[in-house]
Backbone:
């Protein structure tokens, strides 16, 4: 019953790169890299974003019955670099001047679904995740400046807000006792200790914890089980990079303010 419109991920990326063709060729010329020598070794960094768009219901009715919320998944080409044959270092030939602008953000998928509906979101975004995984391992050959050139893609899910990261990682919502997506801190622990926070868990570990939550191998009560899995309650479906997340950033800011 979910209505969704989307592009195939590889087709959308081809379209985005073709839009940047002039910038790429200018970048090669500015770097003094001989055009015909650079046909392979292009790396493209993609920032992915996904966020709820809030209530989009028709105010007067009359249309089809759909969930009243929408979610948009989009991406931004952050940078393109090239490693020329025989060279050891990569050279950046394009960097997005306004990486947080709406204008550089390319929509990939628009869906009528509530962002809190984990199962529905998983079902709709599943094919995107599959396409993305396939592209990580392969190269795209694309005609650029009259020559076929080979591109590899690197994906970073750094455009998600906390709610979406929790959704994608299968964690309890933001009101949970376990406040962090990357470590096992509780609210009480974070309030006591504002300095010593480290990243202690990975996507794979969250998957293992989900299995424990699902199967309850030790026949524990709900409270004991929650304590064991530290807030993992659904199956994560998109790996997120273990970089500094919003919570640790907040704690770091709070520490600085506290010093002041």
Residues:
């Amino acid at each position: 019953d979910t209505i969704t419109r989307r592009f195939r991920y590889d087709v959308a990326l081809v379209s985005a790169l073709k839009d940047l063709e002039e910038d790429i060729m200018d970048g090669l010329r500015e770097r003094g890299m001989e055009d015909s020598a650079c046909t392979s070794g292009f790396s493209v960094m993609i920032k992915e974003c996904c966020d709820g768009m809030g209530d989009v219901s028709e105010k007067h009715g009359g249309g089809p019955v759909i969930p009243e919320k929408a979610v948009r998944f989009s991406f931004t080409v952050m940078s393109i670099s090239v490693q020329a044959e025989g060279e050891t270092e990569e050279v950046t030939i394009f960097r997005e001047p306004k990486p947080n602008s709406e204008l550089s953000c390319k929509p990939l998928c628009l869906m009528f679904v509530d962002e809190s509906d984990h199962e529905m979101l998983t079902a709709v975004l599943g094919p995107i995740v599959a396409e993305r995984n396939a592209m990580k391992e392969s190269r795209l050959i694309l005609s650029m400046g009259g020559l076929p050139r080979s591109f590899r893609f690197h994906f970073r899910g750094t455009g998600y807000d906390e709610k979406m990261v929790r959704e994608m990682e299968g964690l309890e919502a933001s009101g949970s006792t376990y406040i962090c997506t990357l470590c096992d801190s509780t609210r009480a622990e974070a309030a006591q200790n504002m300095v010593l926070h480290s990243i202690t868990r990975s996507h794979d570990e969250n998957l293992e914890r989900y299995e424990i939550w699902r199967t309850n191998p030790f026949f524990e009560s709900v409270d004991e089980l929650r304590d064991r899995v530290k807030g993992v309650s659904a199956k994560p479906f998109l790996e997120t990079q273990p970089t500094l997340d919003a919570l640790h950033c907040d704690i770091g800011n709070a520490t600085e303010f506290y010093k002041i």
The first strand starts at residue 4 and ends at 6. The first helix runs from residue 9 to 19. Residues 3-159 form one domain.
